[in-house]
Amino acid sequence: MTSRPHDPSGHLLLKGLEEEVYTGDTTGHVIGMSHEIAADLPGFATEPDSRNVEYITAPYRDYQILIDRLMAKRCALRRYLSDKGGFTLVPGSVIPLDPAENFQISNEANPYYRHIRDTYGTRVVTASTHINIGIDEPEELLRVYRAMRMEASLFLALTAASPFRDGKVTGAHSTRWQMFPETPDHVPLFASHQQFIDWMPTQLESGAMYNSRHLWISIRPNGEETPRDLNRLELRICDRISTPKILRGVIALYEIRVQQALHNRGAEPLDGRFSEDELLQIVRDNEAAAAADSLDAVITDWRTGDKVPMKEWILALVDEAKELTSELGMDEELDPIRERLETGNLSQRWLAQVEAGATPAEVIQQAIEDLTEIDQIYDPDCPSP
User: With contact defined as beta carbons under 8 Å apart, do 73 and 89 qualify?
Assistant: First the structure.
């Protein structure tokens, strides 16, 4: 794998990735191993439930380097699982085939993990891809947060990959986002950094949040010491993005929208025609529509109040970004987004296979083979189970 410079002028932002994945066997049975993986492999971490494991990259500006670093960790995990006994990565963003009633805690001694188990149960046993973009100035970060929270549902629509649970079709394209508990129930758009600073202690004192990391919404301001020290905006709504090319396109679309907000080329939600309560209701409705129907959803344009097909909304934003993509040397980076709009996301393709007569188990087993092959095409040293 080779890296190519992508932004000679240095105008691209720092970007980092967090990937959560399920471990299991080639039948699609998910097996909890994160406590063993985290103990044996540097750079891997447990999640509260042992059936998924997390790994992250450092932040990079260059897209090729960023994807290379993530894929190096994914392939290191594949080698570990293969050597351990022919285990593999199980695709999807909820446990697709196994009954998921029982929480399998990865570390009983961790009080935060116990709190999550006792409060939410298996609603949080999901897999996803989080994308962090660096923004050092807090007021700018909050301004971008407001704009991007209004658009987060489009990233779920592009990445939905959880139509099965307990071996059945759930009726949703992202079962993960339908069942994941947004916490706290009401999170403002934050007109200023000071409002965010003042808001957080109230949530901690009331018990609505366990700690400063316990802010589970589609996109959140983040930093080393939230809420005072902020340096990145974390997009959390995506289902797990398995294909490197699609991942690269989603990151690029996210960065372009962030860059547009930073360049004041987008509308400020709080200066528009809707109140903050109305805007937050639009966010909830759009995210629910994306979870249910992904790219087939109809959403509300927060700037106008008009109902718009999700695909048309995304295409309009891609077209709107053309001038800035050219300025940043990113003309080809959004091609995977157009491709996904034509071919559909994983949920749509998996559901089409079910409509053609396959069972969810057969779909997942074939997906295990397909996604292993995709990783091997990217890196021939990535092993098969």
Answer: no
**Closest Cα to residue 61, out of 134, 12, 116?**
12
The tally of CA atoms less than 13 A away on the side-chain side of residue 275 is: 2
| pTM score, whole prediction | 0.96
What are the distances in angstroms from CA 364 to CA 10, 154, 214, 356? 41, 25, 31, 15
Q: In Å, what is the CA distance from 294 to each residue of 252, 314, 382?
A: 19, 12, 31
Q: 106-154 pLDDT, tens per residue?
A: 999 999 999 999 999 999 999 999 999 999 999 999 999 999 999 999 9
Are 270 and 146 contacting, i.e. CB atoms less than 8 angstroms apart?
Answer: yes
List the beta strands (DSSP E) in the chain: 15-24, 44-46, 52-56, 88-90, 129-134, 164-165, 168-169, 219-222, 232-235, 298-300, 307-309
pLDDT at 7: 42
Which residue is associated with the tokens 């001038």?
Answer: 323
Report d(CA 84, CA 107) in Å as an integer.
Answer: 21
> What is the bridge-based pairing of β-strands 307-309 and 15-24?
unpaired
